[in-house]
């Protein structure tokens, strides 16, 4: 045990003695690990928000199927769905898009009965009168909107809207550019009276798959207007599959791409670690001449790599955390969240889980090992005189 | 063990402990503080937003596949070709339409 501890102390001594080499190596590792840790933490942050969206969403979403795409559904279906066994709540919703000046905004229309009492707004209050809207904090900041400001949009200039409140930026990234209004106002705004984007059905536990099947099969055939286009039914299990594939697949692609980037970084690090190669050769020659075995030299270099990796990985994690939490991921978040620009207009979600951080450490150790073990072994197996030359 | 080695070891232990503590605090803030607002918001709107984009700029599928699971950006400008939507290429999420078997064989 003492022998291994002594080798560890010698390894740390080497790191301190070769300051420039060690600093360059640690900086290179931080440069490689920083984007990796940043991307995975942003991915985990969005995944967390997305999971809440799935879990707290409806059990079944029903729309029309027009030529293979989702399309608006008539409100006539509401009563029919309400009468179905196992249904606890049914409500229509409108989700659309429009430009607010030059900024794309998502319009959501919900029934006023859905408004919770506990929601926290950054400013103002929830809508209570006709034409009242709640706007996202990003939109409010960009266009200096305050509660009480009246506006209309070119899609329907006759529809006058008034800012009643502003969402708290901690809600989700999707509320940043959102305009929430009552279902009636949204119908008037898009001039689609009697239609909803989708009908949301909440069911008793375990009823959703059966009801989804029943709606798909029976409503299509028995409804008086069955000559029209069919319904498209999406239940929670399907939405969960979207979620799982949407994040795991892309995260998989990202990790695969990053592994390639790592593979390319290895020769670069070989060059960098060759920065102190002459010194390293001499060192190995000297310690071999004083009676060290090749195995001991290899162990010392392994411990050196371990210490360098243990220094680089936590530094990369702390740097990524500081950059994302204090500087809101300036300049870098745009690579992982589409269309947000250099400075994200909302708090960039980032979640630092232990596993990606462990991966960062493992990547660091693999990189340093690949970059140094072979060259060390090659030097350690030649006669000391030749190594010191 | 020299003083410098001791100092480096101490620095290393502090660094590792600091990282673990920072991660633990981050976990705590997500579980306790942030999720409450998200839950209330998502309950209110019935679930809006799933992907790593704040507005449906190119198409709805990467914003929320529940609203439109069809990626119509592959239909243009080269039908069936590469999607030019930036939200389809560079973000940390990627949603695809899940194939549904609609084939009914008549015997």
Largest interface summary: A-B, 93 and 61 residues
Percentage of residues in DSSP E strands of chain B: under 5%
What would you report as the Rg of chain B, rounded to the nearest angstrom?
24 Å
Number of domains of chain A: 2
Strand content of chain A: 15-25%
Average residue-wise pLDDT of chain B: 83
| Multimer state | heterodimer
How far is it from the N-terminal to the C-terminal residue of chain B, by CA? 85 Å
Structural class of chain A: alpha+beta
Shape of chain B: elongated
Protein model, in words:
- The complex is a heterodimer of chains A (389) and B (107).
- Chain A is an alpha+beta fold.
- In chain A, 53% of the residues lie in helices and 20% in strands.
- Chain A has two domains: 197 residues, no CATH class; 147 residues, no CATH class.
- Chain A contains eleven helices and 13 strands.
- In chain A, the strands form two sheets. In chain A, strands 1, 2, 4, 5, 6, 7, 8, 9, 10, 12 and 13 form an eleven-stranded mixed β-sheet that branches. Chain A has a two-stranded antiparallel sheet with strand order 3-11.
- In chain A, helix 2 packs antiparallel against helix 10.
- The model of chain A has no long low-confidence stretch (mean pLDDT 87).
- The longest helix of chain B is centred in the N-terminal third of the chain and has 43 residues.
- The model of chain B has no long low-confidence stretch (mean pLDDT 83).
- The chains are: A alpha+beta (389), B mainly alpha (107).
- The interface between A and B is large, with 93 and 61 residues.
Question: What characteristics describe this protein?
Answer:
heterodimer, A: 389 residues, alpha+beta, 2 domains, two-stranded antiparallel sheet, elongated, B: 107 residues, mainly alpha
